[in-house]
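Same chain as my last thread, 151 residues:
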Amino acid sequence: MSESSDGNCIAYPKVGWRAEIAAIAGPLVDGDTRESWLHRAARKAFVSHRHIKALFYGEMADPKYSVAYKVLSAAQKARIDAAKLDAAALSKKFESIARGMQKNASQECSEDVAALLHAARVLAGGVPDLHREDAPTLFNTPVYRGRLAGA
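reply #2:
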Protein backbone atom coordinates (compact mmCIF):
# COMPACT_ATOMS: atom_id res chain seq x y z
CA MET A 1 0.00 0.00 0.00
CA SER A 2 1.14 3.50 -0.66
CA GLU A 3 0.01 6.95 0.33
CA SER A 4 -1.42 9.70 -1.82
CA SER A 5 -0.39 13.34 -1.48
CA ASP A 6 -3.25 14.00 0.95
CA GLY A 7 -2.12 11.20 3.29
CA ASN A 8 -4.82 8.66 2.43
CA CYS A 9 -3.81 5.07 1.82
CA ILE A 10 -4.10 3.77 -1.73
CA ALA A 11 -4.65 0.03 -2.03
CA TYR A 12 -3.84 -0.24 -5.73
CA PRO A 13 -1.66 1.89 -7.98
CA LYS A 14 -3.37 4.03 -10.57
CA VAL A 15 -3.29 2.76 -14.14
CA GLY A 16 -1.84 5.09 -16.77
CA TRP A 17 -4.64 4.69 -19.28
CA ARG A 18 -3.04 7.03 -21.82
CA ALA A 19 0.09 4.86 -21.98
CA GLU A 20 -1.96 1.66 -22.21
CA ILE A 21 -4.09 3.05 -25.04
CA ALA A 22 -0.99 4.33 -26.84
CA ALA A 23 0.53 0.84 -26.61
CA ILE A 24 -2.60 -0.66 -28.15
CA ALA A 25 -3.03 1.87 -30.96
CA GLY A 26 0.63 2.07 -31.89
CA PRO A 27 2.27 5.16 -33.35
CA LEU A 28 0.36 7.83 -35.23
CA VAL A 29 0.96 7.34 -38.94
CA ASP A 30 0.51 9.77 -41.80
CA GLY A 31 -3.13 10.56 -42.32
CA ASP A 32 -4.11 9.58 -38.77
CA THR A 33 -6.11 11.89 -36.62
CA ARG A 34 -6.41 11.51 -32.88
CA GLU A 35 -9.94 10.20 -33.40
CA SER A 36 -8.89 7.56 -35.95
CA TRP A 37 -6.03 6.56 -33.66
CA LEU A 38 -8.46 6.13 -30.75
CA HIS A 39 -10.82 4.16 -33.02
CA ARG A 40 -7.95 1.83 -33.86
CA ALA A 41 -7.28 1.26 -30.16
CA ALA A 42 -10.96 0.59 -29.54
CA ARG A 43 -11.08 -1.98 -32.35
CA LYS A 44 -7.97 -3.77 -31.12
CA ALA A 45 -9.20 -3.84 -27.51
CA PHE A 46 -12.76 -4.86 -28.46
CA VAL A 47 -14.31 -2.02 -26.47
CA SER A 48 -16.38 0.97 -27.53
CA HIS A 49 -14.81 4.14 -28.83
CA ARG A 50 -16.62 6.02 -26.06
CA HIS A 51 -14.81 3.98 -23.38
CA ILE A 52 -11.39 4.44 -24.98
CA LYS A 53 -11.95 8.15 -25.45
CA ALA A 54 -13.14 8.60 -21.85
CA LEU A 55 -10.14 6.70 -20.49
CA PHE A 56 -7.69 8.55 -22.71
CA TYR A 57 -8.94 12.01 -21.76
CA GLY A 58 -9.34 11.15 -18.07
CA GLU A 59 -13.11 11.45 -18.06
CA MET A 60 -13.40 7.97 -16.59
CA ALA A 61 -11.07 7.13 -13.72
CA ASP A 62 -12.54 3.79 -12.69
CA PRO A 63 -13.91 1.80 -15.63
CA LYS A 64 -15.92 -1.33 -15.10
CA TYR A 65 -13.92 -4.54 -14.83
CA SER A 66 -14.67 -5.89 -18.31
CA VAL A 67 -13.47 -2.70 -20.01
CA ALA A 68 -10.35 -2.43 -17.86
CA TYR A 69 -9.50 -6.09 -18.42
CA LYS A 70 -9.89 -5.83 -22.20
CA VAL A 71 -7.79 -2.67 -22.42
CA LEU A 72 -5.01 -3.97 -20.19
CA SER A 73 -4.97 -7.34 -21.99
CA ALA A 74 -4.80 -5.68 -25.40
CA ALA A 75 -1.95 -3.44 -24.22
CA GLN A 76 -0.03 -6.43 -22.92
CA LYS A 77 -0.59 -8.32 -26.19
CA ALA A 78 0.57 -5.29 -28.19
CA ARG A 79 3.76 -5.05 -26.13
CA ILE A 80 4.44 -8.77 -26.51
CA ASP A 81 3.92 -8.55 -30.28
CA ALA A 82 6.33 -5.60 -30.48
CA ALA A 83 8.91 -7.52 -28.47
CA LYS A 84 8.54 -10.52 -30.81
CA LEU A 85 9.18 -8.27 -33.82
CA ASP A 86 12.28 -6.85 -32.12
CA ALA A 87 13.51 -10.35 -31.31
CA ALA A 88 12.99 -11.47 -34.91
CA ALA A 89 14.98 -8.49 -36.19
CA LEU A 90 17.77 -9.19 -33.71
CA SER A 91 17.74 -12.85 -34.69
CA LYS A 92 18.28 -11.92 -38.35
CA LYS A 93 21.17 -9.64 -37.37
CA PHE A 94 22.76 -12.43 -35.32
CA GLU A 95 22.42 -14.83 -38.24
CA SER A 96 24.01 -12.42 -40.70
CA ILE A 97 26.89 -11.68 -38.29
CA ALA A 98 27.43 -15.40 -37.73
CA ARG A 99 27.40 -16.12 -41.48
CA GLY A 100 29.95 -13.36 -42.02
CA MET A 101 32.15 -14.69 -39.23
CA GLN A 102 31.81 -18.20 -40.62
CA LYS A 103 32.84 -17.05 -44.07
CA ASN A 104 35.84 -14.98 -42.95
CA ALA A 105 36.98 -16.72 -39.79
CA SER A 106 39.14 -19.68 -39.08
CA GLN A 107 38.39 -22.69 -36.89
CA GLU A 108 39.03 -20.77 -33.63
CA CYS A 109 35.80 -18.75 -34.02
CA SER A 110 33.58 -21.74 -34.68
CA GLU A 111 32.31 -21.79 -31.08
CA ASP A 112 31.38 -18.12 -31.28
CA VAL A 113 29.58 -18.71 -34.56
CA ALA A 114 27.70 -21.65 -33.03
CA ALA A 115 26.75 -19.52 -30.03
CA LEU A 116 25.45 -16.71 -32.28
CA LEU A 117 23.44 -19.14 -34.40
CA HIS A 118 22.05 -20.74 -31.25
CA ALA A 119 21.04 -17.32 -29.86
CA ALA A 120 19.43 -16.44 -33.20
CA ARG A 121 17.45 -19.68 -33.13
CA VAL A 122 16.25 -19.04 -29.57
CA LEU A 123 15.32 -15.41 -30.32
CA ALA A 124 13.37 -16.49 -33.38
CA GLY A 125 11.19 -18.62 -31.12
CA GLY A 126 12.82 -21.96 -31.71
CA VAL A 127 13.31 -24.27 -28.80
CA PRO A 128 17.01 -24.82 -28.18
CA ASP A 129 18.16 -28.39 -28.64
CA LEU A 130 20.49 -28.76 -25.67
CA HIS A 131 21.15 -32.43 -26.33
CA ARG A 132 23.11 -31.78 -29.51
CA GLU A 133 26.86 -32.04 -29.13
CA ASP A 134 27.50 -28.74 -30.93
CA ALA A 135 24.90 -26.79 -28.93
CA PRO A 136 26.68 -24.08 -26.96
CA THR A 137 26.23 -24.12 -23.23
CA LEU A 138 27.19 -21.64 -20.58
CA PHE A 139 30.37 -23.51 -19.67
CA ASN A 140 31.32 -24.45 -23.22
CA THR A 141 32.44 -20.96 -24.24
CA PRO A 142 36.08 -19.84 -24.26
CA VAL A 143 35.48 -17.23 -21.54
CA TYR A 144 34.09 -19.71 -19.04
CA ARG A 145 36.48 -22.52 -19.95
CA GLY A 146 39.36 -20.26 -18.97
CA ARG A 147 37.71 -19.46 -15.63
CA LEU A 148 37.01 -23.12 -14.91
CA ALA A 149 40.60 -24.03 -15.65
CA GLY A 150 41.77 -21.46 -13.13
CA ALA A 151 43.23 -19.05 -15.68
